[in-house]
């Protein structure tokens, strides 16, 4: 299956972001899975920016756009948004199938209360419910940005059948951050013998470097920091082959409490 990662820099103008997404997807062709970054609907903005005021329902204009584009492309699209509630919004990934229907949602479990930032003051954490969704012949597990630092979530997704992990992110730039991003993505692939496809926001604020890692931990495609597309062929046979040689999941003797 072809996977396309769309690296972009969102703004504080939701309508402009929708127009950007529509333009970036206009020339795509042949991808079974298209992945957009975390917060594609609307950027996080400064710490005092009210995300509740801009959050949208799951039947709002952002998801409507993603549904139209999924139908047009005949692809499954994963994209990040802020989902409206009666209080703080969720940091949500929507998965829209090629028929335009909402196939799944994942509400970010681990909020980014780290590196001097407190995402939990602006957003609410999702329930601890790992989400795996079928896309063609793959089972795809969903993680968002800071979730990457918690290997137990990746393992829970694999235990639920995931043979690929998809990681939309707005990975804030800074000292050590690009090294952490690349290292953690490769580690999640190696320790779980799965594909990892990570779509990051680019621009000056974020790390960019969207990439695809194979089940051996090899980076097969990687972007730099600008508006780029990353395309790779992802096959479940590679997962089976790596697990035949390295059956570390089958060799486990410890279980989580």
TrEMBL record:
Molecular function terms, GO-annotated: hydrolase activity
Cited InterPro entries: C-N_Hydrolase (IPR003010), C-N_Hydrolase_sf (IPR036526), UPF0012_CS (IPR001110)
Tree of life domain: Bacteria
Limits of the CN hydrolase domain: 1-236
Entry-linked Pfam families: CN_hydrolase (PF00795)
Keyword annotations: Hydrolase
Keyword Ribosomal protein: no
Family to which this protein belongs: Belongs to the carbon-nitrogen hydrolase superfamily. NIT1/NIT2 family.
PANTHER family in the cross-refs: DEAMINATED GLUTATHIONE AMIDASE, NITRILASE-RELATED
The name this protein goes by in its record: Predicted amidohydrolase
Species whose genome carries this gene: Aeromicrobium choanae
